[in-house]
């Protein structure tokens, strides 16, 4: 699994029989659910939901994409990694990698953009300083792109 060492958050997901489609491989919609599960774990690691409950500021998914490198079928266990590659202003761009344990290879990559939002006023906002600090603690390489967040 050498491809996932650079990802600060990695989850394991068993492929369910019902995730396969009539072409006998995992249907593409499930990959976005795998990304969502990894993103949720990332959010949990940073305790972003606690921050949102206290300050009504947090991320909202703006876009996501996937590149399918090889089909996956049942039975398999997938390792899904997520890392942030750029954070500035109110935008966080993240990458995903999905590793098939059955195939011993990378099978899918992806990217998403999250925008930070002030839910009280209903508008975009910069990444809050406290969250920026948490992100840098988890991913030190983000420090450079978050310099504008006054961390």
TrEMBL record:
A GO molecular-function descriptor: fatty acyl-CoA hydrolase activity
Annotated Gene3D superfamilies: Hotdog Thioesterase
Origin organism lineage: Bacteria, Pseudomonadati, Pseudomonadota, Gammaproteobacteria, Oceanospirillales
PANTHER family recorded: 4-HYDROXYBENZOYL-COA THIOESTERASE FAMILY MEMBER, ACYL-COA THIOESTER HYDROLASE, YBGC_YBAW FAMILY
Organism: Oleispira antarctica RB-8
InterPro entries: 4-hydroxybenzoyl-CoA_TE, HotDog_dom_sf
Superkingdom of source: Bacteria
UniProt signal peptide: none
Protein name in the entry: Thioesterase superfamily protein
């Amino acid at each position: 699994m050498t491809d996932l060492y650079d990802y600060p958050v990695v989850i394991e997901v068993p492929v369910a029989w019902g995730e396969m489609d009539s072409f006998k491989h995992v249907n593409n919609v499930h990959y976005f659910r795998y990304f969502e599960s990894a993103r949720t774990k990332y959010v949990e690691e940073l305790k972003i939901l606690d921050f949102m409950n206290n300050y009504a500021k947090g991320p909202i998914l703006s876009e996501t994409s996937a590149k399918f490198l090889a089909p996956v079928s049942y039975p398999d266990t997938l390792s899904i990694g997520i890392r942030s590659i750029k954070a500035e202003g109110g935008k966080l761009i993240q990458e995903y990698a999905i590793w098939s344990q059955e195939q011993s290879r990378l099978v899918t990559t992806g990217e998403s953009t999250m925008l930070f939002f002030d839910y009280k006023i209903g508008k975009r906002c910069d990444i809050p300083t406290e969250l920026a600090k948490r992100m840098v603690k988890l991913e030190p390489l983000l420090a450079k792109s978050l310099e504008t967040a006054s961390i």
